[in-house]
Input
Amino acid sequence: MFILTLRSCLTQGRVQALRFIQSGGGRQNSLQWKHTLQKRWKSTTVSEMASPSGAAARSVPNATANKAMGRWMLLCSGMVGCAVLLGGITRLTESGLSMVSWHIIKEMKPPSNQEEWEAEFNKYQQFPEFKILNRDMTLNEFKFIWFMEYSHRMWGRAVGLAYILPAIYFWRKGWFNRTMKGRVLFLCSFVCFQGLLGWYMVKSGLEEKPDSYDVPRVSQYRLAAHLGSALVLYCASFWTGLSLLFPRQKLLETRQLLKLRTFTHGAAGLVFLTALSGAFVAGLDAGLVYNSFPKMANRWIPDDLLAFSPAIRNVFENPTTVQFNHRILGISSVAAITGLYFYSRRIPLPRRARLAVNSLLAVAYLQVTLGISTLLLFVPTSLAATHQSGSLALLTAAIWLMNELRRMPK
Ligand code: HEM
Output
C-alpha cells in the first residue's frame, strides 16, 4: 500500500512539474506553483493521500464519508462502554480470576466436554482464589464464573476488531485526512494495549502471596490503569464521532464563553479523576469499610485516615482514605457541575449546548445518589454496576458539552 501511495504521489508531482515546464517557468509561474501547492496542503478533503482507489475516494463527498466514519466511532465508543460494564459485573461477581491463562486465539474456543471442563477447573484449583476463597466450589459454579470472564474477554476481542477492520477499510478507500490517520492509529494501538493491560491486571490476582490469607484480588493500581485507559479510549472515540457527525456551532467568542469552556474542561477532568479514584475503591473493596453517609462512623474525619506509613501510601492503599477521597472528589464534581450550570445560564447558548448542560447536571446528581446508595446498602452487585455505568454517562455528558463548545478554527 505504501508503494502504491508513493507511486501515486510521484505521478501527481510529475504532472504538476510538466505543466510548470510547459508554461515556461518564470517568477509568476513559480508563484502560481507555490499557490497550487499551498492550496493542496491546506485542503482537508477525505482523500488526502491518493490510493489505488483514489479516483473513487475523491468522488465520495466529504459529508458522506464523515457520516460513515462518525457512526463507526460512536459504535466503537458504545462497544467500549459495554466492555466497561461487563468488566465491572465480572469483578463484582468475583469471576475475574477464573481463566488462569491468556492466549489471543486458543482461548476463543471454550471447553466443549466434561473432560475439558474438568481440566480447566483443575487449572483454576492451583491458584490462590480457589485455595483461599472457593474451596467448596462445584464444577457448575465454576462454569458460571468462567463464562462471565470469557464473555468479557471475547467482547474485548470484538471491540478490537470493530476498531481495526473498518480502519483498514476506510484507510484503503483514502477517506482519512492527516488528523484522522493519527487518531485512528492511536485508537487502534490503544485498544490492543488495553487488552494487554487487562491480562497484566489479572496476573496480579493469580500470584501466590505466601504470608497472606487475605481474599485474593487484583492490584488496585492495575485495576485503575485498566479502567482509566478504557475511559480514555471511550472518551477519545466518542469525541471523534461527535466531531465528525456534528459541525461546530457558531458561538459568540465572549470572555464569559471562554470561562465556561475552561470551566467545562475542569469539570470533565474532575469527573475523570473521581472515576479513577472509584477504581481504587473497587480494587480495595473500600466500599465496605464505612457504610454511613455523610459521616464515616459518626465522624467527619475518620481516625484511621493516616494509619499507613509513609503518609502517601494512604492515598492509594488505605481503604479508609481511598473511600474518603472518593467521597470528597464525587461531592466536588457535583458541586463544580452545579456551579457550571448556574454560570451557563448567564450566557445565550444554542439549543444543543443547553441540552448538554442540563443533561450533565441531571446525570451528576443521579450518579452521586447512586454512589451514596451503593455505600449505604453494602455494595450490592446491581447497584454498584449501575454506579459504574453512571460514571460513563457522566463522562458522556461532559464530553458532549465540551464538543458543543468547540472553538471555530481561525
Ligand atoms: C461524580 C461522582 C462519582 C463518580 C464519577 C464515581 C465513579 C465511580 C467508579 C468509576 C467506581 C468504580 C466502579 C467499579 O470499578 O466497579 C466507583 C466505585 C464506588 N463509588 Fe463512586 N463515583 C462518584 C461518586 C460517589 C459518591 C458520592 C459515593 C458515596 C458517597 C460513591 C461510592 C462508591 C462506592 C461505594 C464504590 C465501590 C463500588 C464497588 O466496590 O464496586 N461514589 N465510583
Q: What stands out?
A: Residues 88, 91-92, 227, 271, 274-275, 278-279, 281-282, 287, 293, 326-327, 330-331, 333-334, 367-368, 371-372, 374-375, 379, 384, 387-388, 391, 394 surround protoporphyrin IX containing FE (CB under 6 Å). Residues 172 and 348 are 43 Å apart (CA to CA). The radius of gyration is 26 Å.
